[in-house]
User: Fold these one by one.
Assistant:
Number 1:
Amino acid sequence: TNNPAFSRDEKLLAVCGLLEQNIAYYTWVGFYFANHETKTLHLGPYVGAPTDHTVIPFGKGICGQVAVSNENFVVPDVAAQDNYIACSFTVKSEIVVPLFVNGENIGQIDIDSNVLDPFTEADERFLEFVNQEVAKLF
Ligand code: SME
């Protein structure tokens, strides 16, 4: 992670690619980063279909709710969520895990799946570990 030949965004993109390539039910993998002044999330590196939702207000959608709650959000079925921002009609489920640097929630990893209800506690523990490693880049 400390190889200076690659920028932080290049490393984050590589993390997204590894996850999307190796876990069959991870369809879209990306990072959002918080601006605490404007209370908005901003799309960072991602792998998967381009999304119109590059800026998300705190509180809005699954991602915006995690910016406020500081807790993992596992959505087995996005159709059952009222406060949800659809990026693609093929997406059936989502998991968002906050990214903490020195105890501060600076953003999140967001994963969409085309599979219904695929995420388990193993995904949560794994993505918490990924984010702990990613936090070392900051
Ligand atoms: N579905 C998310 C929006 C981001 S896209 O999944 C890339 C949400 O409800 O916050």
Number 2:
Amino acid sequence: MFRICKLALLAIASLTVIPVGSAMAATLTGKAPIVIGHRGASGYRPEHTLAAYELAIEMGADYIEPDVVSTKDGVLIARHENEISGTTDVANRADFANRKTTKTIDGLPVTGWFTEDFTLAEIKTLRAKERVPFRDQSYNGQFEIPTLQEVIDLAKRKSVETGRTIGIYPETKHPTYFKSIGLSLEEPLVNVLKTNGYDSPDDAVFIQSFEVSNLQFLKTLTNLPLVQLFDASSAKPYDFVASGDSRTYGDLLTSTGLAGIAQYAKGIGPWKRLIIPADTVDNNGDGKPDDLNGDGVISDADKPLQQPTSLINDAHAAGLLVHAYTFRSDDFFLAPDYNGNPEAEYEQFFKLGVDGVFSDFPDTAVAVRNRVAGEPNKDVPEPTSLLAFGILPLAEILRRRKAQ
Ligand code: G3P
Ligand code: CA
């Protein structure tokens, strides 16, 4: 009798077992969070190159993230923005000197060279360079600008090689702008994905955008999961600006806003400061932000963390995944609270229940994820399943407790 009661108590206690690691809030699905190689392993190789994506995969990233823009001939290529002088050698090319121009992109004047003024054949003559001055510059000039198709080809080839499903996580960049010049991103994006067999809600693909209306349009074109990106609360999606809608990202973060997003999206991709805010301090009272690390500039390293918001819980309550961006190991980008240890940042976010992280350094993200939350392919029953069945099989309870 005592033994039966003890087992029953164990079973009841199991209902409060948190499914991904101890001392962690649950992810939405109960599975371990995913690691997304942000622009590839862009902490180590020039961003949005096949070399950066391949390294991210080899480091264990579950997804690779191409931002996409269009060429003049309507081919989607991987670049963070359509102005390419910051990430390619275009400014050194005398034959393209006359392409330099100034345009208004998302309401702001931008001077440089623009992908929509180059054919794919011309883009292929350029070479990528490292954007961030304090990162490794030794790969500059080595790599081509990949098309989205080439990124997909890589993901498929590496899936076979590694035995893991390598997902892709494309982001439409400047969709309102590209639509305005007759080079809409949505149709070619969906066409490329469908041609490659991606059109199911269960495929390892997420499509993301900072704009709202193009995600709502994409919802009519594809069954793939969509992710609404969030910038700072005071900022506005550019399609809202263009259409005169006064709402900000902050308005979309309310329970009403999140419920609206859940109508078309599977998840949200918030700037990580919407989950754990940070700000400068003025401890010496001189009216200026304190340069806490004394490097002469005010950066993320000079912004102590504040209390976490309720965003992860709010999004989960609306049934939305939360994939936060961007995690970077460089001292310049790391909050002082972490004392130079980027692992501490991942640990904090994983323990808050984030469902995924966009990381420039996927090796570190994967190491912490596996240590804190377990590997993603080792499925754990979802909390809702546990409740639906009312009880975990006792053998599973005992197995888990033994494993802890
Ligand atoms: O897409 C998530 C994150 O990449 C958004 O920021 O500017 O790096 O594309 P960004
Ligand atoms: Ca992105």
